[in-house]
User: Fold these one by one.
Assistant:
Number 1:
Amino acid sequence: MSQQQYGLVLSGGGAKGAFEMGVWKALRECDYSLGAVIGTSVGALNAAMIAQDDYEIALEFWSNLTINQVLDLNKKMTNTYVEQWSKESFDVFRNGFITALFSDGLDISPLRYNLTQLVSEEAIRNSSIRFGLVTVDITSLKPRQLMIENIPEGQLIDYLLASAALPIFQKQEIDGKTYLDGGFFDNVPINFMLEQNFNQIISVEFPAPGMRKWVRDKNAEIITINNSEYLGGIMNFDSRQIEQNIQLGYLDALKVFGVLDGKHFYLSTHKSNTFFRKFINTLGMPLSNQKQLQKMLTLLNLPADATQSDILSSLENLLRKTAFKNQPLGLSMLEIAGKSMGVFRLENYSIDFFIQAILKELNRLLDENLTLLDNPKIIGTFLTPSNNNFLRYNFITFYIVFLSIRSDLSPERMSTFLSKFSPDIALAMITIFYIHEIINH
């Protein structure tokens, strides 16, 4: 095994497994060499597709996946509902449904059929990427951790279904033994991968029901990829959720691999960064728009003769009061502005395109909210001491009111006004000023 080969570990979690497809896309783009892939439950199904190394087929499967391709919500239940349950109270329906569910279990024959179309056992056995899975033999109450060479010929799909056999599914039997979802033993089988002599491991993990074993080898190099957003429920096969989960896996992995920067967004600072460099170099310098300069200095509680160093120091102090405090100032300010305005998150942005996205969203919000100032109560809310009504306002309200407020307010009223600004709102405001500065000059 070459020094650069990694073992990939995929956790279980039903429909959340779409996230692992996105991680695979990132692995392919970043040229990671995989020597083995081991999964539990849906992670085992994805692991088989990765070992087979046919990304396009796997992506097409996930992109078009519906609940009907996993489960046969069978006619028996449908007929029972029409003939009996629909005529009774909800309690009778619920109890009848649960009884039917746990006596027969949900029929996953559609999933078996789809796997026969999707998975080539021969390709996996001949693959340079070794494949493994985890399941539990409930006949003997023992876990089964199996590499492909330990799975009898012709039984790969049986064992894939055994690894993903949730208790609500019909019993999965192989050679007279009944199997249960591998998550009941180890939902993130890192130790099993270590036993295959891989010390460099990429582990894809997300919240899901199941057991998690402590990693035994403290010297292993483990790169962990977690989801940064909620992935939906394990049985949520909504196409939009699946598409989002694939994109999230892709972007979260690229960030872990060091390709993208950012805490909240996914930003490439290596290419198309002309505006970004101008933004960084201009940050802290006096603004050419004198009204905006005066308002910025007031917001930062700085005198009219403040230097670039003074302004940068005040911006850093504000940044320390935000969730972005451990990032460079310029990058953090852009992210705070983008987040404050609701710029779409799940996209691979070049940093210059991100600056344009901020401006585009600002202009859209301004168009939608220009009538705000027709309501005199809004400005009154900002000028009234200890009035909490302002908390319901979003960034664009603060921005419009801030631009419209008169500079000759008494110090007391100006102080009251500025006390309503959170560090994030203040930094987002100043970010917009500097973006306009670099665009206009």
Number 2:
Amino acid sequence: MLELDILKFDRSDLLYTACYCEENIYMLCSEILKKRPELLDDFSVMFISNDHRSVPLWQQRAGRGEEHVVLWDYHVVLYYKQNSEALIYDFDTLLPFPSPADFYALETFKPNMLVKDEYKHMFRLIPAKLYLDHFESDRSHMLNERGEYMATPPQYPAILKKGKHNLDNYISMKQDAPQDIFGRVMTSDDFYESIFH
């Protein structure tokens, strides 16, 4: 079994920019690639959204009320799975970093709660290596009508390799998106089945 202390990063030592979860996770994948490249195959980048781009997440730093719930258009975390061990790394959670995946799912997605279809979570899982190779963002999704950033962007340059902004391909939960680069889509039932059984 893999020693957990290898994977317990101190959040304060990692690059983080509020409202740029897709880049925070990209940078975390880069850190793993630098320090422990042999582990990267056990990691997947997980986009959480739905066709309405409206997903409730609990225990979030930006959340409100006693349970710190927030409605995101999408969110991105890092998912580790090896045999029966599964962890989730979320920079924006109030839960431990990382958290056991089953505990994180119960506290963050409330799978036993009845919600309208428009708020049901869907998940896109992309192998971390593919994400590092192909993810690109020009940060245009963070600009308002006046061309101003709605949240201060990271201090490092935008992640562009071929100059092709492709964030929407990852956020989309359409099953027919190209599966080779953009991973696979799972319904909430399928994802919960994979971590609770």
